[in-house]
Specification:
Layout: H1 7-17, E1 21-25, E2 43-45, E3 58-59, E4 69-73, E5 84-92, E6 96-105, E7 110-116, E8 125-132, E9 135-140, E10 143-149, E11 155-163, E12 168-173, E13 176-181, E14 188-193, E15 200-211, E16 220-225, E17 229-231, E18 235-236, E19 239-244, E20 253-259, E21 262-268, E22 278-282, E23 287-288, E24 292-301, E25 316-324, E26 332-338, H2 346-358, E27 363-369, H3 377-383, E28 390-393, H4 404-411, E29 418-427, E30 430-439, E31 443-444, E32 448-455, E33 467-468, E34 493-494, E35 504-509, E36 521-522, E37 527-535, E38 545-552, E39 558-565, H5 566-572, E40 578-579, E41 594-596, E42 603-621, E43 627-645, E44 652-660, E45 663-671
Length: 672
């Protein structure tokens, strides 16, 4: 049996002797069936409740050495309920920390643990370790910091040597290094072992140690280069984190960045960086991403205008930058289900804005609203997501919006079958759109085309434009937008006057499924042009709108997309082609018409799908049958959403008459 201390004793030894903290447990001192949290002073559970479902029991079924180990398996769909924590007794922010443990992961299953960064567990995750089917990865959030492999159904030893002072994390499997990385979190306070769904694994011989850092007089350190990713030829601005690891206050330094043939220096002065304080430096010059994997080096120099500091070993960090070469002419489309009533939907807002910023010209987002004033029912009802927010990338599987980038990076590599050119013209209050599709590959099957209008910078004064925010207060963590706003600092309902929405779907033609206007067999070099007509709503700001084309393959996935501003499409010119009509066959006009929100204080919106181009007349009648408002639209076609301002109407019941091609339909709504 290996020697082990209780954690409290180990801390006492470290404090009194200024020596290395040491703790280990091989579980040989327990009786088989013991709950470790209930029979030790150092193991506990996430909730603090020991001796029950969260705790782990000692088993004699399988062990790395001697007889005992602990076993983890999930029995719920969300993982757990086992959730075992080893608290390190303090938050370590510097020095050399070593974690070591033996693992046995059953064949074709997995294992999981994480390091917590704060003494209060659940506050900040420092690092996640996922093991699955022989593959192991270490992640900070969704960013994979390091990946490798392990042997299934056999014991192996994992060692993590963590220099918290210089932020260097190195991982060894059975004594062989699988790599090192700089982590986004530079402190640790505990380890949490939690079986995810389908996990089955044993743990034995757990040990930790910590050697304090001896602080020199003057020492500026390069702690982190924030990860950089993107597409070949894109610009990216590097940012780094430097830390004062000396006793003297740092008042000035240089940071030198080298990438490929480019070299930049940021001169930082007139600062007061005290001992163990950090500072983030954003480079003012961008790097241009080159193809493949290239090293990026950042070095701190001239600390306090000295030629060198007292420890040069921590002056430099290196990361690999992997730039992806996109397929020629490819544009990826993400459709997101969202709503102002949805408190989690700010997560989707942030993700969509980040993608638009980071991948402009290669990506187009479409925010499909549900149950609010920006909803287009004909689009919303066919999106068919299971929850909000959710997203589809090129009509793939439903995902969380936070995973849009993952799917995007896969789809941007897929060579499209055809390219789309957008053209447009304006005729009165109608927008005529042409989508010209040039096939660079032969195709077969039932291909389809669809067109969407989106608008940025959308706002409104009605209550329906106020955004619910479950991130308020920070209990759900930080959620920082592209403008630097942290949703955790915003109220639970962000007022309409403070909200601006982007990528908002305004119209869809002819339908979610698209128009089947292609032959079953398409030869290489074939060209097709399709024409769409949209009514321009008086509330739309066409200068903030985009025309989005979607070419749907025989598998119903989006093969390729197109996106252009309306002014740019007009500059390209409208091309005459096949007129695309509303494709939804409806037996009665009433089936096409819906009115919402109902009841309403400020507005109502009419949603209808017009099969053939037609003029439309709308009358609003009060309870006495008197006409109180009317609107006329000319030559409408396809799915339409028509807003009507009723804020000035007295409270009561109103009837909306809609006349299309001689067919009259009526709907009622209540004005509050």
């Amino acid at each position: 049996m290996k020697k082990f201390y209780s954690l409290l004793s180990a801390l006492a030894i470290c404090t009194m002797a200024s020596a290395q903290l040491e703790f280990s447990d091989d579980f040989e001192s327990y009786t088989i069936g013991d709950y470790i949290g209930a029979n030790s002073s150092f193991w506990t559970t996430w909730s603090g409740a020991t001796g029950g479902a969260e705790d782990a029991q000692v088993t004699g079924d399988n062990a790395s050495a001697s007889y005992n180990s602990i076993y983890f398996t999930s029995s719920t769909t969300d993982g757990g309920p086992q959730d075992v924590v080893l608290d390190f007794g303090e938050v370590f922010t510097a020095g050399d920390f070593v974690f070591e443990s033996d693992f046995y992961v059953n064949q074709s299953t997995g294992a999981y643990f994480n390091f917590q960064a704060e003494s209060v567990i659940g506050t900040t995750w420092a690092l996640d370790c996922h093991m699955s089917n022989g593959e192991i990865s270490f992640q900070n959030g969704t960013t994979v910091m390091l990946a490798g492999s392990y042997s299934q159904a056999t014991w192996f030893t994992m060692t993590m040597e963590i220099n918290l002072t210089t932020n260097n994390w190195e991982v060894f499997i059975d004594g062989a290094s699988i790599g090192s990385f700089a982590n986004g979190e530079t402190q640790i306070a505990s380890i949490d072992i939690f079986p995810l769904t389908g996990n089955q694994f044993y743990v034995d011989n757990v040990s930790i140690s910590h050697t304090p850092y001896v602080v020199p007089q003057l020492n500026g350190a390069m702690i982190l280069i924030n990860p950089i990713e993107g597409l070949v030829s894109q610009e990216r601005f590097a940012s780094v984190v430097v830390k004062n690891l000396g006793l003297s206050t740092i008042t000035a330094f240089d940071v030198v960045l080298n990438y490929g043939t480019s070299s930049f220096t940021e001169y930082v002065s007139d600062i007061s960086l005290n001992s163990f304080e950090e500072m983030t430096i954003l480079f003012s010059n961008p790097i241009i991403l080159g193809e493949g994997t290239s090293g990026l080096t950042a070095t701190i120099a001239e600390v306090n205008d000295a030629d060198y500091d007292d420890d040069s070993s921590d002056d430099t960090k290196i990361i690999n930058v992997d730039a992806v070469k996109p397929a020629d002419g490819k544009l990826v489309i993400a459709e997101e289900g969202t709503g102002t009533w949805c408190g989690w939907c700010p997560r989707g807002t942030v993700a969509m804005d980040q993608m638009a910023r980071d991948f402009d010209g290669f990506y187009q987002g479409i925010a499909i609203h549900n149950g609010d004033p920006m909803a287009v029912p004909a689009y919303d009802q066919d999106l068919e997501v299971s929850g909000y927010p959710s997203a589809l990338v090129d009509r793939g599987s439903e995902i969380d919006p936070g995973d849009i980038k993952v799917d995007f990076m896969e789809r941007i590599l897929v060579q499209p079958t055809a390219f789309i050119t957008n053209g447009a013209s304006v005729d009165g209050d109608s927008l005529n759109v042409s989508l010209t599709i040039d096939f660079n590959l032969a195709a077969s099957g039932n291909w389809k085309i669809a067109c969407v209008l989106t608008e940025d910078n959308v706002s409104g004064v009605a209550s329906g434009y106020a955004q619910s925010n479950y991130y308020s207060g920070g209990d759900a963590g930080d959620l920082v937008g592209v403008d630097g706003t942290n949703w955790a600092d915003l109220p639970g309902t962000v007022s309409a006057s403070n909200m601006v929405y982007h990528h908002v779907a305004r119209a869809l033609s002819p339908s979610f499924d698209g128009y089947a206007g292609f032959p079953n067999s398409i030869t290489f070099g074939s060209t097709f042009t399709f024409n769409f007509k949209f009514a321009i709503d008086e509330n739309w700001k066409t200068e903030d709108m985009h025309i989005v084309g979607m070419l749907l393959g025989a598998d119903s996935r989006i093969d390729n997309g197109s996106s252009s501003s309306i002014p740019n499409a007009i500059a390209t010119g409208f091309a005459t082609g096949t007129n695309v009509l509303g494709s939804t066959e409806l037996s009665q006009f009433d089936d096409m018409l819906s009115i919402y929100p109902n009841p309403s204080k400020d507005f109502v919106q009419l949603s209808l799908n017009i099969k053939d181009a037609a003029d439309l007349n709308i009358n609003i009648l009060n309870v006495m049958g008197q006409k109180v408002a009317s609107r006329d639209y000319r030559n409408l076609i396809g799915a339409q959403v028509l807003p009507l301002n009723v804020s000035g109407f007295p409270a009561g019941i109103y009837t909306v008459e809609v006349l299309v091609n001689g067919a009259l339909s009526t709907k009622q709504f209540v004005k509050q």
